[in-house]
Every structure is written in structure tokens, then in C-alpha cells.
Amino acid sequence: MKGLLKSCFFGIKGNLRVIGAAAVILGGICLIMGDPSAVGIFPFLPAPVLGAAAVACLRRESASRWSRYKITLPVRRRDIVKSQYISHGICALAGMACAGIFLCLALIIHGNIYFYYGFRDVLTLILGGGILAVFMGAIAYPLYYWWGEEKTEVIIALAILGAVAVILALSMLINFLTGEGGVTDTQYYVSLAVILLIALAAYAGSCFLSAQIYEKTEW
């Protein structure tokens, strides 16, 4: 498993340099400008971008024939799938950590002038991108193992759109269930926890489904 994880991270190593440089530049501009909209939007970006990079590296594996070679190794196909899901999860956590560092710097430089309980609080800004990345992975990998590497770009686009649609649908459902009287702070954070649990459950189920598809794939 360690070798498989190393191969996953080696595949996204080149993208990480570009993403890291872009994040530092864009994050620095947002911090210098201090625009509330930019400070509120930027924390949502690192985790989904890193998640998309993790999915995109599968195309590079196919181009280098590594995806075909590793199934000849003494490892189970389900372990290959698990390694991809674990690396995607680590990318999501890394993106959330980047968002947390950015928000800490925003608080240090500008003070607590941007954040308030609800959609613009620090916890939501950090978890929001992570949840989006998790749903992206839950959608992308079964499609990849079903359709193949030729449609990787389409799969990434569908994963992003699908993840956003799922989060919006869950948010609308929660708003409907809570009624028109508004949502209290307690209800909001309970709802956020529920969405997080649903995302993790979907991710686990997606991993099982991808393993089943990959086991039946003929090369």
C-alpha cells in the first residue's frame, strides 16, 4: 500500500508545484487587497483543486502505462483503488489545511472583520472546500473505472458539477426541513455535520463501488 500511495503522489507532484505557486500568488493578492468577497471565496478553492489534480493524474498514469503495469504487481485491485481514494482524501485534507493557514493570516493581518456565524464562519470556509472535494472524488472514480482514462477531462467536469449540485440539493433540503422561521446557529452546525457525514458515507460507498468495477475490468 505504501508503494501505491507513493506512486499516486509522484503522479501529482508536477501539478502540486504549479498549484502551490498559484495558491501562494492568488492567496497573497487576496490578503493584500483584503476584499471580503475574495477572502470568503479563496478558502473554498484549494481542496477541490487538489482533488481535481488527484483525479487528473490517472490520465498521466495511463499515458505512461503505469496503470497497466501495476495490475501485474502482487497487489489486489481493491488495494489499488483504496490507494487512490486515500491519496485523494489526503489532498482534500491538505487543501483544508491551506485554507486554514490562509484564514489565520487573514485574521492576523486584517482582524476578525470578515467572518460571522453561518456561511461565512471559519469552520464552514474550511470544511466547505473539503466536502466539495470529497463529493468530487465520490463521483469521479467510479466513472473513471467505468469509462476509462480517455474521458478523464469529462469526468472531472462532471464530478465538479455533480458535487456542487449535491451540496446545493442537500442545503435546499435542510432549509426545507427547518421551515421558514430561519436556521439557528445550532441547527446550522448540525446541518453542516450531517452534510459532512453524508459526504464521507458517499465516499466510502464510492470506494467499494469503484473496487467492484475495477475487479471486473479487463485489460
Question: What can you tell me about this protein's structure?
Answer:
- With 219 residues, the chain is mostly helical.
- It has one domain.
- Helix content is 81%, strand content 0%.
- It has 9 helices and no strands.
- Helix 7 runs parallel beside helix 9.
- The longest helix is centred in the middle third of the chain and has 34 residues.
- It is globular.
- Keywords: Membrane, Transmembrane, Transmembrane helix.
- This is ABC-2 transporter permease.
- InterPro entries: ABC2_memb-like (IPR025699).
| Relative helix content | over 70%
Shape: globular
- What structural class do you assign from the helix and strand content? mainly alpha
Largest sheet: none
Strands, total number: 0
- Treating each run of at least 4 consecutive H or I residues as one helix, how many helices? 9
SSE string = HHHHHHHHH
* Domain count: 1
Low-confidence stretches: none
| Percentage of β-strand residues | under 5%
Span between termini: 22 Å
Computed Rg: 19 Å
Task: Give the structure's gist in a few sentences.
Helix content is 81%, strand content 0%. It contains nine helices and no strands. Helix 2 (13-33) runs antiparallel to helix 4 and helix 6 (77-110) runs antiparallel to helix 9.
What attributes characterize this protein structure?
mainly alpha; about 0% strand
Topology:
Layout: H1 2-11, H2 13-33, H3 36-41, H4 46-63, H5 66-69, H6 77-110, H7 122-147, H8 152-178, H9 185-215
Helix pairs in contact: 1-6, 2-4, 4-6, 4-7, 4-8, 6-7, 6-9, 7-8, 7-9
